[in-house]
Structures are given as structure tokens and as C-alpha cells.
Amino acid sequence: MGPRYLLISALLFGLALGAVAQSAPTDPPITAAAKADVIQALGQKLKSNYVFPDVAERTSAALDANSTKGSYANANTSKEFAKLLTNDLRTLGNDRHLVVRYAPDATFETPGATPSPHQLAKIREEVTRDGFGIARVERLPGNVGYLDLRGFGPTEMVGDAYTSAVALLAGTDALILDLRRNGGGEPASVAWLMSHFFAEGDERHINDIYERTKDQTRQYWTSASVKTRYLKPVYVLVSGYTFSGGEECAYDFQTQKRGTLVGETTGGGANPGDFVALGHGFAAFIPDGRAINPITKTNWEHVGVKPDVTVPAAKAQQTAYAEILRTLIAEEKDSEARQELNRILARVEKGDSEKVEYPAGR
């Protein structure tokens, strides 16, 4: 399925590991010998796969040193050990994508390999149950669109849903794209979503990903095959939780000057990769690539994506909605329509919910 960012979603965690079916993981005791084996395997995988070889060497050596001085001696269970390793990995490697999990029931494919038909069916089932990552699509009062997108699943499974969501909002005067709870996903699906926000014929080069294991760079462009287009103003909501592919989407809107970002600086993870087995039921997510924006020639790793309008994440929707309404009021020529928009703006500025009224019975 190609290079991918880490899906943070707990729902898709097992699928990211390539698991066909998983029972609830236990937390058994772990021996010193098993810890040593896992640390050795982790160091080897880092040195062979991690996108920055020099960092991999330093991190592997530091993990060995920590083990020698007894830093993991008090981790008596598998989950405790995995948590300690994750904390050290992220500190030593300075990469929030690095993670170790105890996943004894997971099965693994060769990184980048095509999943089996059975695995694909399971992934499709879970993606469908998750609403294709779409938590909410709504037309807000004042004719403002709202799309809450929580993750970027495989393009062949979520692409039509993205198009349908944008089509439902096609008649709105502005759109709020909420990425505040978006933990990431497939970069190809980010490109597919972005394709809806440029005119037909206006193809954009939005991202590159360099893969160390293949020593090659893959380009991501908007797609000409997307026929539903939304060309009105877009406001993108972000938070400190927004991560990885969610950050790329926000960064793409910002660098392409296609949207206004509102909220908090994002989490700061730009290095995609895959899960690898470490033995004894452990797995590690090791980034083997890095994003390279074609405009800035860099990415958001460590620094996050900084919003254009900085407000607490909880206030981001209200802030964006109010700004949209003010613009619509300034542009509205009809006095009655302008009066209604002012009424909606006053309610939004107060933080009041829209009162729902139902017509009297016939």
C-alpha cells in the first residue's frame, strides 16, 4: 500500500501492524534474556531501516548502554518494558514516530508488501466501521460547511467517501476542515483529499517522501481524476494532537496558500515508516522515510505546523466560524440575509448553541 505515516488511531493500530485478528493483549512477565534479545533486535532494525543512519547508530548504542547500567531492570512486565523503550527511543532519537509495542498476536508482512486478500478484507471492514475516518459532515447555519476528519485510511477505501463528503458541502460558502483529532495515515490519501480543493487542470505537487531502504523519493501530486472540486475559502483546525499525515494535510493547505490554519501548533511528526517484528511478541514502528515539501524543501518534524491564527484548540472552531461569518456579512448585499448572518454571528461569538425549533403539527 506504499509508504505511510503512522495511524495513531487505536482502531487501526492492529491493521497497521498487519494483524489479521488479535485477541486482547496480555501483559506477561518478561525475563532479562528476553529484554536483551529485544534490545539487540531493535538496535539492528534501527541501523538497517531508520531514515537517519547516524541517529540510528547513536540511539542503538545508547539503548545498549542503558541496558548495561540496568535502566530496564525494574520493568517486570512486557508492557512496562515496551513503554520504557518507547520513552527512551523518542528521547534519544528525537522522533515521535518511534514506538515499541507488545503485540504478541500480530502477524507481519514484508514492509511495503501488498496485503493478502483476507487482510485487505479485514482492513476494509474496519475502515468502513470507522466511517472512512469521517466523524462528522455538517452544513452549519449561515451556509458554512464543516468536515471532521480523524484519519487517512488507504486511498482505494476512503477516496470515494472523501469525494461524497465534499460533494455534500459543495454549495456552502466556506468550509471548516477539522483535523484537531487527526492522528495521521496514508500520504496518498492526503493527496487525494487535497485534490478536491484546486480547480480542474490546476495540478499541484504537494509532497515528496524519501525512503531510505529503497534510496528513492516518491512524489505526491493532486489527482486529475477527482471531479468534485471545492474552490471557496477553507479554514483548517489543528491541535497539539494533530499528527503525521494530519499535519501534512494542514501543511499542504498552508504552503499551497489554499487555507487558513486555526488552533494550536501540531505534534511534529513527519517521518513515515512501518512496523517491524522484534521477537518475543514485540514490534517497533521505525520511520524509514522523511517528508520533503516541494515548496519549503523541509517539513514539520520536531517543530510542528504553526497555525496562521493561534488560539486554544477548544476555541478553534468558534474562531474560524466567526471569521467566516464576518467575511460573509461584509460581502452580503441583501439586507435581510445580512441581518440573519449577524444574528448567527452574535450567537457564535457568545458560544451559544443553535436552538432547534420544529414546525407545529399539521
Structure description:
There is one protein chain. The protein is an alpha/beta fold and 362 residues long. Helix content is 37%, strand content 17%. It folds into three domains: 26-102, no CATH class; 132-273 and 287-312, 2-enoyl-CoA Hydratase, Chain A, domain 1; 318-350. It has helices at residues 10-16, 32-49, 53-68, 78-93, 117-129, 155-168, 187-194, 245-255, 316-331, 335-350, and strands spanning 99-102, 134-140, 144-149, 174-178, 205-211, 216-221, 234-238, 260-263, 273-279, 282-287, 289-292, 309-310. A six-stranded mixed beta sheet has the order 2-3-4-7-8-12, sandwiched between helices. A three-stranded antiparallel beta sheet has the order 1-10-9. Strand 3 (144-149), helix 6 and strand 4 (174-178) form a beta-alpha-beta unit. Helix 3 (53-68) crosses helix 4 and helix 7 runs parallel beside helix 8. The longest helix is centred in the N-terminal third of the chain and has 18 residues, at 32-49. The chain is elongated.
